[in-house]
């Protein structure tokens, strides 16, 4: 007989259509069997029932992060973190890199992540000469917080075959100094050869995913949409980790890469499979392209120049014809399609493609997505609504990068990650972290959706604030909708999977700033406790 657990005396946030809050709930096996009052739930009690007294704490659906990079989250714990509080200058970073190099055999890659030039004393990137001072026997790569810019030493450049005569690739820049010499800075697709050379081994994949799994369930994340499976090895590692439960959160995969993404999409179109293949633990999601760069870089592709630079419109990856050619065919084959599109020009491009696809081959409920959809003006939102598009905004970015947004985009910040506009348009936007670009803790994203403030306290598009109930829906049922799973999970309703989270207090009674202090007491996936605080 399946195990039965009764939760009573709680704040049971159902996230159903009426946003009801109940006292109690019951699960049996891996399904929710009842939601209601204490008396209604206790009436189900048997001699074998386990009773959990919530004592006023919140019980809610498991949180779903609809866009993060799970392998990178794990890998970063094995790398130097530039987000450590003591790293405030380039010399601080170099010291940590030296310590890492001393522990590794010659020839091993030394990696650092989370670098933000705007938070460094020097307000710049480290040069290849500075990285050479760490080691000339180890290839070194430092990745900016956005993930779109790399800084490398001479050995890394040599291994990747990049010289001062190497031309800039489409959608990328190999940065050189005034004498035409390499600086070691590689922007967007220019970092592709480095990514290829520093690719993970199978053992590194497994270690990284096990670490990431533990970190995510500690924060109540029961499903993840992995944002970029960029190689067959990555896909195999994720499937293996999911099926062995080495990766405990359920997984919905996006297949795409910032490097030669068009070739990867072509391969998937030739494979004969399409979105939806898999099971409750591991499922193939959309094919994906990158249309522009990073909102914090800044390298997003905009219609008007940056407020900070009248000559800068950002980085554009592809021409319209190429995107149309790949994605109209993908649409016809049954794929969900998505893109990384931060700037309004990039959003305009993918909407044109989706409009063409739906005109040529009407397909109800295709639920094509736009990852980030950074600068989404009212005219673009109207087109999203008409095409049934699901955007995945990142309100936590406003906290970490908001000061730069105000500088680079000015008044356009009133349309950045416009949660209020999505609500008013009836668009089921799904809040995501894009971790490790920013913190994967859902409470950070939820809080940012409510206050829209940067680290220095500046408001960033305050006209787009939403309330707590709306934010919780965007982190649960809307994210389930983005993967066609709203009938299976995303709310606490009878018949759905028993993916649940118990918080350490009532979230509905917490003051806004107290939300950041809320901890997860227990995470349950498939009716089984996978994390207990």
TrEMBL record:
<dbReference type="InterPro" id="IPR033932">
    <property type="entry name" value="YtcJ-like"/>
</dbReference>
<dbReference type="Pfam" id="PF07969">
    <property type="entry name" value="Amidohydro_3"/>
</dbReference>
<protein>
    <submittedName>
        <fullName>Amidohydrolase</fullName>
        <ecNumber>3.5.-.-</ecNumber>
    </submittedName>
</protein>
<feature type="domain" description="Amidohydrolase 3">
    <location>
        <begin position="50"/>
        <end position="531"/>
    </location>
</feature>
<dbReference type="InterPro" id="IPR011059">
    <property type="entry name" value="Metal-dep_hydrolase_composite"/>
</dbReference>
<dbReference type="InterPro" id="IPR032466">
    <property type="entry name" value="Metal_Hydrolase"/>
</dbReference>
<dbReference type="InterPro" id="IPR013108">
    <property type="entry name" value="Amidohydro_3"/>
</dbReference>
<keyword id="KW-0378">Hydrolase</keyword>
<dbReference type="GO" id="GO:0016810">
    <property type="term" value="F:hydrolase activity, acting on carbon-nitrogen (but not peptide) bonds"/>
</dbReference>
